[in-house]
Automatic annotation (TrEMBL), chain A:
Keyword Acetylation: yes
Localization per record: Nucleus
UniProt cross-references to Pfam families, sorted A to Z: CBFD_NFYB_HMF
Start and end residues of each stretch annotated as Disordered: 93-143
Protein's UniProt name: DNA polymerase epsilon subunit 3
Organism of origin: Bambusicola thoracicus (Chinese bamboo-partridge)
General function of this protein: Accessory component of the DNA polymerase epsilon complex. Participates in DNA repair and in chromosomal DNA replication. Forms a complex with CHRAC1 and binds naked DNA, which is then incorporated into chromatin, aided by the nucleosome-remodeling activity of ISWI/SNF2H and ACF1. Does not enhance nucleosome sliding activity of the ACF-5 ISWI chromatin remodeling complex.
GO MF annotations, alphabetized: chromatin DNA binding; protein heterodimerization activity
From TrEMBL, chain B:
MF (Gene Ontology): DNA binding; protein heterodimerization activity
Keywords in alphabetical order: DNA-binding, Nucleus
Superkingdom of origin: Eukaryota
Name of the protein this chain belongs to: DNA polymerase epsilon subunit 4
CDD domains: HFD_POLE4-like
Function noted in UniProt: Accessory component of the DNA polymerase epsilon complex. Participates in DNA repair and in chromosomal DNA replication.
Domain Transcription factor CBF/NF-Y/archaeal histone: 73-105
Cellular localization per UniProt: Nucleus
A single GO BP: DNA-templated DNA replication
The keyword Nucleus is annotated on this UniProt entry: yes
């Protein structure tokens, strides 16, 4: 059964929880409404991705980056999302950096070779592929 | 691979809690960011070659704000739920229904991209 992109829904539990948080206590959501909102969120991601990709292409880059997504928000007239998204991104970056430090220390202990450091830096190419491990370092090149 | 995804998600949520630093931050953590699902959506676009981890994170966050964290402004799901709820209230209902959503989509310019996509 071939899935259309819009059918790739975000988890129901997440969607339901967020809807309930947004609405006053005692409000219910019909199954159809919940499912429609979930679908809308998927469409939102698809549309934002496409928009963001335009910015990446304009910048002659093959890799979509966070800046492209923020530009997409502006383009889609969701400017009010931008500030909170930037804040979240900062927190995320700090957290990723912390993970990177922790991994470097772990590698040092494991191998105790100088080459580990340069090996990680040279792995920037691998970082861009998001198919594989999510634990790869974020690419810091085009922002 | 699945373990890595779970770890990344947990870490992302933990980061948000760390930013809040409130004792009840853990309890307030409502939902985990579905990074893997968002990634699947991004990959579904044939024009997209690659996307950085950060890009996926920002997309997930824009779609689905999860729990406590910096910037309490509403993001997509919350925004559309609230806008739709206005119509439920007009109809004196306490249950949000599909038609409320349709009304919101029709009424709000920013939701125009959703027209015709939810069926």
């Amino acid at each position: 059964m071939a899935e259309r992109p819009e059918d790739l829904n975000l988890p129901n539990a997440v969607i339901t929880r967020i809807i309930k948080e947004a609405l006053p206590d005692g409000v219910n959501i019909s199954k159809e409404a919940r499912s429609a909102i979930s679908r809308a969120a998927s469409v939102f991601v698809l549309y934002a991705t496409s928009c963001a990709n335009n910015f990446a292409m304009k910048g002659k880059r093959k890799t979509l980056n966070a800046g492209d997504v923020l530009s997409a928000m502006e383009e889609m007239e969701f400017q009010r999302f931008i500030a909170p998204l930037k804040e979240s991104l900062e927190v995320y970056r700090r957290e990723q950096k912390g993970k990177k430090e922790a991994r470097k220390d772990k590698d040092k202990k494991a191998d105790s070779e100088e080459q580990d450091k340069s090996r990680e830096d040279d792995n920037d190419d691998d970082d861009e592929r998001m198919e594989e491990e999510e634990q790869n370092d974020e690419e810091e090149v085009d922002n | 691979m699945a373990a890595a995804a779970a770890a990344a998600e947990t870490a992302a949520v933990a980061a948000e809690d760390g930013g809040g630093a409130a004792p009840c931050a853990g309890a307030a953590r409502a939902a985990r960011l579905p990074l893997s699902r968002v990634k699947a959506l991004v990959k579904a676009d044939p024009d997209v070659s690659l996307a950085s981890q950060e890009a996926v994170f920002v997309l997930a966050r824009a779609a689905v704000r999860s729990g406590a964290g910096p910037g309490r402004a509403e993001l997509f799901v919350e925004t559309i739920a609230k806008d739709a709820f206005v119509y439920a209230q007009q109809g004196k209902r306490k249950t949000l229904q599909r038609k409320d959503l349709d009304n919101a989509i029709e009424a709000v310019d920013e939701f125009a991209f959703l027209e015709g996509t939810l069926d």
